[in-house]
Design brief:
The structure is a single chain. With 277 residues, the chain is of the alpha/beta class. Helices cover 44% and strands 17% of the residues. The chain has one domain (3-159, 203-275): Rossmann fold (3-Layer(aba) Sandwich), CATH 3.40.50.150. The chain has a seven-stranded mixed beta sheet with strand order 3-2-1-4-5-9-8, with helices on both faces. Strands 6-7 form a two-stranded antiparallel ribbon. It is globular, with a radius of gyration of 18 Å.
Length: 277
């Protein structure tokens, strides 16, 4: 399949699912974990103030949260429908002064921004994973690094390749014939490798590290975003009903989510890096 066909497929998918993407991180306690753990590490590494790029930020869930905390934010996304929804959400939250720009664009081409423009760069929810061409992923990583100042934090989260294989076992065994393809290649095209999602590349942790280290980024931490709760959606949602047990479990998750045995097996994982060149 040609790159342009893949790009259009991805754009059409997210145009049709923009409202779902806004709700996704809040739809139930299980999905909230990805949001909670991501914010925990944003708070750990972000500067006290500054201008943040939320690249591929969709409807602006992280943009709005960080703007509420006093950061200036630029939201960039490929999909106009996502940005229209973000505009409404930002306006409703009364944060237009903090959200400096809401712009349409690709993480592969950030030429609208000069070198060393931002005090932190976010690429969350796997925008990198919807680029199937390796050279283009490298270009996107290069652009994300370029627009950040020296020593700034860079955050990138993706969908885990090993996590996808666990999903095959738990939820979609009828697509098990694609398991070896997912393991060895990591690319997914609807129809050719299953149904139910748009074109995507699933990452191994070392693959994401290599991608950013090649661009002069020091990897500080790798985090499994669902952690030990990954793929235990019913059990996690049931636990949430007991406030004390939930508090204990969240403490356990945050203490274990950086363990190498946890990172790759989560549905999503997060790289936290520092630009050193």
């Amino acid at each position: 399949m040609k790159d342009t066909e893949v790009d259009n497929m991805v754009k059409d998918w997210f145009a049709a699912t923009s409202r779902h993407e806004w709700r996704r991180l809040k739809q139930d306690p299980y999905h909230q974990i990805e949001f909670i753990v991501t914010l925990h590490f944003l708070h750990k590494y972000l500067p006290e103030e500054g201008l943040i790029l939320d690249a591929g930020g969709g409807p602006g869930r992280y943009t709005i949260e960080l703007a509420k905390q006093g950061y200036d934010v630029v939201l960039l996304d490929l999909v106009p429908e996502m940005l229209k929804l973000a505009e409404r959400k930002v306006k409703r939250a009364g944060l237009r002064r903090r959200v400096k720009q809401i712009v349409e664009g690709s993480i592969e081409d950030l030429s609208m921004f000069g070198d060393a423009t931002f005090d932190a760069v976010l690429c969350l929810g796997s925008p990198l994973g919807h680029i199937l061409n390796q050279a283009r992923r490298e270009k996107a990583a290069r652009e994300l690094v370029r627009v950040g100042r020296k020593n700034i934090p860079i955050f990138a989260s993706v969908i885990s390749r090993l996590g996808v294989l666990k999903t095959l076992l738990i939820r979609i065994q009828h697509e098990m014939r694609y398991a070896k393809h997912h393991l060895t290649v990591g690319d997914y095209i609807p129809g050719a490798h299953g149904e139910g999602f748009t074109a995507a590349h699933w990452f191994l942790p070392e693959e994401l590290c290599d991608l950013f280290e090649a661009q002069g980024v020091e990897v500080l931490e790798m985090i499994g975003l669902e952690g030990l709760s990954s793929h235990f959606q019913k059990e996690t949602n049931r636990l949430y009903k007991d406030e004390e047990k939930w508090r204990i479990w969240m403490e356990v998750l945050l203490e274990t989510c950086t363990h190498p045995a946890v990172v790759g097996g989560s549905e999503h994982f997060l790289l936290v890096g520092r630009k050193i060149e």
